[in-house]
Amino acid sequence: MSYPWSEDVITVERGPEPGGVGGAYRVLGETLRGLKTVFKQALSKPVTIEYPEEKTPVYPRFRGRHKLHRFEDTGLEKCVGCSLCAAACPAGCIRVVAAENTPDHQVSAGERYAAVYEINLTRCIFCGYCEIACPFDAITMGVDYELADYTRSDLIFTKEMLLADPIDKTPLRAEGE
Amino acid sequence: MADQTRVLLDDIDEPGLHTIEVYERLGGYQALRKALTTMEPDEIVAELQASGLRGRGGAGFSMGQKASFMPKGTMDKYLCCNADESEPGTFKDRLLMQKNPHRLIEGIVIAAVAAGANRAFIYIRGEYVLQADILNAAVAEARARGYVGANILGSGHDVDLVVHRGAGAYICGEETALLDSLEGKRGNPRLKPPFPANQGLFRGPTLINNVETLSNVPIVIAKGAEWFKQRGTEKSTGTKVVSVSGNVQRPGNYEIELGIPAREIVYGLAGGPPPGRKVKCWFPGGSSAPVLLEEDLDRPYSFESMAEAGSMLGSGAIIVVDDSVPIVSLALRVARFYRHESCGKCVPCREGTNWTVKMLERIDRGEATPMDIEILDQVQQNIMGNCLCVLGDSMAMPVRSMIAKFKDEFIAHNERAREAADRLAVGAGLSSEPVDAAA
Amino acid sequence: MPKPEPKLITFEIDGREVQAPEGMMLVDAARLGDVEIPFFCYEPKLGAPVGACRMCLVEIEGMPKLQTSCSTPVKDGMVVSTTSERVKQAQNAVVEFLLVNHPLDCPVCDKGGECPLQDISYGWGAGRSRFIEPKRHFEKPVALSPLIAIDRERCILCYRCVRFSQEIAEDYQLVFLERGDHTFVGTHDGHPYVAPFSGNIVELCPVGALTSQAYRFRARPWDIEDAGSICTLCPSQCNVKYTTRDDTRVLRVLARDNQGVDDGWLCDKGRFGYQAIHAPERVTQPLVRDGGALRPVSWERALSEAARALARAGGRSAAIVGGQATNEEGFLVQHLMREVLGSPHVDSRPSGVLDPAQARALARPDLTAAVPDIEWAGAVLVLDTELVDEMPILDLRVRKGVRRNGVRLVVATSRPSSLDPNARAVVRFTPGAGEAFLAALGAALGDGRGLDELAGRAGASPEAVRAAADALRDAGPVVVVWGERLSGGERGRQAVARLLDLARTLELAGTEGAGLLEVPRGTNARGLREVGCLPNLAPGLADAAAAGKSAGEIAAAVPEEISALLLVHADPLSSHPDRGAWERALDRAGSVIAFADFLTPGLEEHATVVFPSESEAEKDGTMTHPDGRVQRVRQAIARPPEVLPNWQVLAELCERIGKPAGVVSGPAVFERIVASVPFYEGLTLAELGGKGVRWQERDGAGRVPESTLPEGGLEEPPPLEAADLRLGTAPSLWSGPVVEHSPILRFLLADQRVELSVEDGERLGVSTGDEVAVTVGGASVRGVARLRSDVPPGSVFLVEGTQSENATALTNGRPRAVKVARAAREVTPA
């Protein structure tokens, strides 16, 4: 059986033919409309944020660099070194080595404390599982996102670094913004 | 006024009955003579089985049948008389041991011969100092006359009898805990099986019976199973010493024929509650029996009838509670006792009794919600049947019966207590919420 | 009691038909049908079930109440449900009750993540708690002992630890105190729970109530890995799991159940001794004596110095191999000596020469008992060994046999044994008179002629010997557990002949489940013997081409005949008798090359080259258990950077001396061993697997060299020489470098103590606690006197292997009469 050629014939709908005065008007009109947008934007404030002089505000639930917390009243660390964050971490970037509190050296509220608490931020995927796993709300995801450094090892954050407040505060977006 | 049927207590008022002279003058040790000289051990067991004598310690298991479970053979076998009478409300064994120790000894020797045991122990409650002294003296007398020891009455049977004092634990009345205690260990119940009849004291077959049960043995042997069966009902034969206590006018031990209406005991013998008060509820068989109400007093007092009413005859200790007693206090009293006496071995009893007490205390302070009463009920259900021994059930059953029968009172008690506490708090300036003046 | 034969029955559980051996507890039988029943208190290793936790309740058709499946044996046709509404409610209830007083401090609890209570709460609990009341409180954590911390709030009172103490270790220290919900586990008067096997309770605890002080807060289960191996600290060779973190540190040692070896238990030395691996004192780089002191050097220098020294000495070199050497190391050492240096002098036995014919007779497969045979034997004779110190885990096996299967135990030792209370007959003989005792026992088992005379020569009471013979006669299969000490000394040969004679009398060779079991001094003594580390035996127990000198003879031959000493995991100053001779030998030897992980005082002073050796957790190799089980030692953690495998160092030495051994890996050495030892034929590392293989149970067993039990021709034991006090020595479990260098075990470290009978103490005016000196022939050892009522008069006992005042200063392989006198307190200069 031969191939029916007629099936390859496609009908294409065409636009109106340009021409005459109508055509000229259409071209000019569109140009003017474009110019209108240009002039309007030229007069409005720019949206570019001049980082690093300026920083993008983030939402309060933004998942940035982690923070470790202390109890406000006693100053003791909330972290008891249970290592659940390390267990939950899908990137395997948290390392906890615990030690025992003694009456002379009371670091946390529980029997144990984290003698070593390190987060390798080069590996962290900022999923926030550590925050969810923490039974004492000792670790939360902060809002800092400025995480560039010159060496990789500088990005292994120790307990002291995580407990300290960041030097530069990241601006937050207000409610409903 | 109803009469007692005195069989066990027939000569109880005889002065000097605890001495062997008086006991022998009244026909004592004749049953032993009869058993040893005219009967084979198997016949004794058969006679006991035929009499339908049921254990008087609480479980109500047929005594003869229990004796028949003892394996034959020449291993070391033991008989233990459970005289660790600690159930609140029960004081019948004390009377029997104090007044008529020789009948118990006679019963023990007969039962030991029947069971083939040649070592017998009386494990007596630590607090029963006087009774232990009397028993020790009686055993010495019996030994001197040849009723206890080697080759009793020339029959060739040896039964050695030792009185052992407990150290004051309710749980040691549980038969396997009693055995552990007797072995010198911490008195904790053992897992059953193996049952003591197979592997009991020092891993030998052991027959364990209550004082009253064993005291009945000489009567069954002397007068015959037929005579014994004439008393009581078909399934609860014989007489029973009932300890009546609580809100009654004449508390005490009364011996009755099993099957008479409970009202006759409570009102007839014990004189009922004080004038102007009504029976609110009553324990038919010690504090571990579920409580029954006033209308249940018309039921016959027998093993089967009490079981039918959802309770048990237990050790035969009737505790009467009149309407002046708040039910929460009663439940708390019972629960505290069992929490204090729980041995701690199995989980439901150890934690359940302690939880129950804490919840009842909260209800008593008015800090509970109706949901807590639900939880309280469920905790009792969770204890029942899941424990190693019956101690847990012993608390759960009465407390649960109280919740079932007096639930409204529990709720009202909690409400009243809360309001009282709130008023106090306002008075002391502790609460900022004013209490509605109308409440 | 003979081992029962299991019979299969069929029962139904949750709708599926399951076959199980009759009499098996339901909870175990259910597992055969892939049904899991939760439980806490049940542990078959602890004896009869107690039914305390109530977690394993199941519904059995025909029974009105729920039954504890841990105590219900399966019967044919039983119909069981573990998922019915009633069972579920009971399980929920029990979990809820358990958590009533449990603090739920899982994040701080060491057990969190490997906790049966957590698992069961998740699996069978209702997932909610209705308990809002205040919980019970205890002081926490409290030190139950320096090794174990107890948190009583977490305890669920499952009875496991108490049962272990009461029924397995039989130290009777742990008890329950108080009652009801105030019950707690404790000891009498709050004494610390110190016992050789106390660490097992940490592993038994189903919650975090008992935790190891050494492991406390070190890691969580997801931080760690398990690495199976065997413990090399004593001949028990218990199977263990090393818990490692980051592949570099051992954090914990757990028992690994091997019915044929350890029955799932582990002693505290094996459990806590791992700390020595990470001790800062450990030798972790090669050392060479330079200017009078040992200094760290490069491997190149150490190897070349050692090779040069050995090559120079050639046939004048000798090797002492310690018991911790693996088969591979032992094989290479004897290869280095015999084939490379041409010296026949290699010995691994501290206690003297073992006759080659006797060695072959002792190795006969039909004459060797396996460890589980102890459990099911008719009678066990413990001969001249204190198991709890020398092979601790066998002590538990013997106790188990006696308690559960009614094994008749006979203890025949010089020193009072901890097994005495369990024994049917106890014989005390004079130290060193094992031969005379065996002669007397032989007489008592025979016609009794000369018994009194022979017992007199043994210093034992004839009645006791007769009682021992009565217990052994007609008992069924007899297992003789004998200590290497018996075969030591100058009459060792005659003693072994008597032992073989006893084996013939008791028909051990022809009886299933009977046999001899040696308790050697060194961990791998049997393996080293079989790979040829004895002066007169080549690999495979064949006669050596040239008989070499034994350890004692080597010491005497320095410096005239021997100029270089190779010490492989050995410090003869602490382990070999006649310390004086060894001090002289080490002093005069031209070079002393040692493989060591710790510098003992002897090495510190005398070694010229020290190669750091791998710790037990860093080693790869094989060892042979005294019952013939060849087991693998597996590497669990990385070696410190400067430590090389010992086989590699030995192979390198061979090569540098000029005759390469031709091995490129540890397994290659094993292949060489298999090729040289006929009865290891065909053995592969894969076949050994995790649990090892007894070579007697393989086809190759037939290839052990023929030997017959000697008949007659036994020498009469010599009469006792008149002596006031005779010296006996015994090693302590708590001596040696591992205990010295594990901080947590240091409190147990054995000091020298002098055990005397009360009579002798009174006669000499010595009482317990006095400092006394034991003197013989100019040498003297000081120690603290301890008067024991069960020490027989006329004997005095010292500890071998202590850090200072070692008893080896007084021993020389012969019976020694000693003098004991109160010592003046040493005045330490201010």
Order of helices and strands of chain B: HHHHEHHEHEHEHEEHEEHEHHHHH
Number of strands of chain B: 9
Largest beta-sheet details of chain B = 5 strands, mixed
What do the pLDDT scores of chain B average to? 92
Q: Strands across the major sheet of chain B, in which order?
A: 6-5-9-7-8
CATH topology of the largest domain in chain C: Rossmann fold
CATH class of the largest domain in chain B: Alpha Beta
CATH homologous superfamily classification of the largest domain in chain B:
NADH-ubiquinone oxidoreductase 51kDa subunit
Query: Quick one: overall form of chain C?
Result: globular
Domain module count of chain C:
4
**What can be said about the biggest beta sheet of chain C?**
7 strands, mixed
Total strand count of chain C, please? 36
Query: Do you know the CATH architecture of the largest domain in chain B?
Result: 3-Layer(aba) Sandwich
Based on the structure given, which CATH architecture of the largest domain in chain C is correct? 3-Layer(aba) Sandwich
Helix tally of chain B equals 16
Total domain count of chain B: 3
Keywords:
heterotrimer; A: 177 residues; alpha+beta; Alpha-Beta Plaits; two-stranded antiparallel ribbon; 4 helices; 5 strands; B: 439 residues; alpha/beta; Rossmann fold; Ubiquitin-like (UB roll); de novo design (two linked rop proteins); 3 domains; five-stranded mixed beta sheet; 11% strand; disordered C terminus
Q: How does this structure look, described?
A:
The complex is a heterotrimer of chains A (177), B (439) and C (830). With 177 residues, chain A is an alpha+beta fold. Chain A contains four helices and five strands; from the N terminus they run αβαββαββα. Chain A folds into two domains: 17-47; 66-163, Alpha-Beta Plaits (2-Layer Sandwich), CATH 3.30.70. The mean pLDDT of chain A is 88. Chain B is α/β, with parallel strands linked by helices and 439 residues long. Chain B has three domains: 20-229, NADH-ubiquinone oxidoreductase 51kDa subunit (Rossmann fold); 239-322, Ubiquitin-like (UB roll); 327-425, Up-down Bundle (de novo design (two linked rop proteins)). In chain B, strands 6-5-9-7-8 form a five-stranded mixed beta sheet, with helices on both faces. A four-stranded parallel beta sheet of chain B has the order 3-2-1-4, with helices on both faces. In chain B, helix 2 (30-38) crosses helix 9 and helix 3 packs across helix 6. The N and C termini of chain B lie far apart (47 Å). In chain B, 55% of the residues are buried. Chain C has 830 residues and is an alpha/beta fold. Chain C folds into four domains: 8-98, Ubiquitin-like (UB roll) (Roll), CATH 3.10.20; 287-350 and 524-703, Rossmann fold, CATH 3.40.50.740; 357-519, Dimethylsulfoxide Reductase, domain 2 (3-Layer(aba) Sandwich), CATH 3.40.228.10; 725-822, Barwin-like endoglucanases (Beta Barrel). Chain C is globular. The model of chain C has no long low-confidence stretch (mean pLDDT 93). Chains in contact: A-C, B-C. At the B-C interface, helix 12, helix 13 and helix 14 of B face helix 2 of C.
